[in-house]
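Quick one: structure tokens for this chain, please?
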Amino acid sequence: MISRKNAAISKFIIHKVGNKFNDTKNAFSEKVVDFDEASYDLMLPFLLRPFGSVVQSYRFNHHANISLNEINSYCAQMFNDEAAFIEVSKHMVMHLFEQSSSAQIKTGDVLVVMFEGIEFRDMTTNAIGIFKIESKVNFFQTYLENNSYDVLVQKGINSKKVDKGCLILNQSDTEGNIILSVDNNSYDAQYWINHFLNIKYADDANSHTQQYIELCKEFSTEVLKTNYGAKEQNSFLAQTIDFFKENEVVNVERFKEELFEDEKHIREFENYKKDYEGDKNLVLRNQFDVAEAVVTKEKRKFKTDIKLDTHIQIKLDVDAPDASAEYLERGYDDEKKMHYYKVFFNAEN
């Protein structure tokens, strides 16, 4: 998470990125933007607001050498020589253009920005922001002509949401520069994070917590829901969150002991975890510190509704992991040839 309380824009330029698959071309600016007060006051929070809630950070990645990562190299040039800002920003757009390998990749405006006064984890630094605006919205523009007002429709940038953006801080740790990223139009999960930026999660508690919760979410969907039903899936997710909330450190062996009573389920989880690590090309730690902010954020994403084909939904409380086991019973009616849920309660709220 960053604070933008003392942040300022020192350089700002707009280019257009095309799509080589559709044979649309790039278009480049030759000068930085000179803001008026009103547009500056709107632009600064528009660009930085999304990063105020970002919990996890990334680091540059490359299969051979980090110095060969294109965006890492371009940012190093900008930080070391601000006079190169315009030319280097064009190279960033050309690199983005090279990643448009399908018709699915959208053209758009690319904003390259130099920030000052970014606060992150008790340090203040400058940063480079790269933003891609893919979606334009319609708005009405009124104008005066021949002593009468008329109206026309124009397209513009929605000031509520950045489509894609990253913030490369001029601060590093043992893994390299600290990077934050957002992607609200994630139609291609590989395009922005892996192909353009080529970044990976930092090796910290945030990453370990995120990766393990992601494993549990996918296991609950692909194994528990498929084989045992939505009740088992939602109960497992609620117990997972409860375990993470109650423990400052996750020990994987203890996690399995507390969440699974049946040895069969433990083996299913272990086998799934092994395949998951292979598919994702990662190794999950057997013990790690819990990042409370990640747990809170992931909990909000959990969908604990049981949706039935009879147009009935049962909503479970993710903060009450034992409720479904104690008060919800699943069975099969031989006469109706249908599954059923039996719900126990004392009173209706």
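The mean pLDDT is 89.
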